[in-house]
Amino acid sequence: MVTFSPQFRIPLAALLALILSACATRGGPVAYNQGDFHAPDPTPVVLSSDYKLSPGDEVTVQVYELHDLSGDRTVDSTGRIDMPLIGPVPANNLTAQQLGTAIGARLQEKYLQSPHVTVSLKTAVARTVTIDGSVHTPGVYNISPSTTLIQAIALARGLASQANPKRVVIFRQINGTRKAAAFDLSTIRKGLEPDPQVYPSDVIVVDGSTLSESYRNVLRSIPLAGFLLGL
After folding, report:
1. Fewer CB within 10 Å, N- or C-terminus of the chain?
2. Is residue 139 within 8 Å of 5, Cβ to Cβ?
3. What is the pTM of this model?
4. Going by C-beta distance under 8 Å and a sequence separation of 6 or more, which residues neighbour residue 224?
5. Domain ends where: 123, 145, 169?
6. Which of 72, 90, 123 is at the close of a domain?
7. What are the per-10-residue average pLDDT scores of the chain (231 residues)?
8. Cα 99 to Cα 118: distance, rounded to the nearest angstrom
9. Closest by alpha carbon to 75, among 116, 39, 127?
10. Residue 97 lies in a domain
11. If you ran DSSP here, which 8-state letter would residue 177 be given?
């Protein structure tokens, strides 16, 4: 479930340096409509031969000389693809090659003798967020399509003892601009504010005494709920 890389702090430091510069040149945060802090821009996904499929990914299935069984399929929210004749086939956490083998085995059980099946990845959905700051286990984490801010913090084993739950900032790329919004976890947990959805490629930073003074100044320059920092 979790992929941790000690190098992930380097791009975060560069991001915060950029924010510091923008604050100095633009006079700080500007008011915004909360509805503007929506889903981010699409993020390219770096693929490898051992890439594991997950919900939202699209694959192309080819069954040799059987066009009716071939075509594009999307991994649904349950982690399966729907195939003619054999119905749903589990695809979550399989490579494209492994999925092709599974489809071939299912077809051979009842319908075909030694079917030749190939599966290739057509599009992939980015699904990781970076969580840093005053949490127990900073790192890069896989998320589901419906993960919220509270759930994301839980992936990092919750807030550290030095954390400031009243200031948790999400950095996100929207319409080609790096933007940020600050949230108060204490009011969210009490049900006084909605628990915002987080998206792949979000960077979540929790304020706290362990952060450097420059980082803390950046986080505290972003007003809570109802303001946006556009860079």
Report:
1. N
2. yes
3. 0.64
4. 166, 167, 182, 183, 184
5. 123
6. 123
7. 39 55 46 60 73 89 94 93 96 94 95 94 86 93 89 96 93 84 93 92 91 81 61 53
8. 9
9. 127
10. yes
11. E
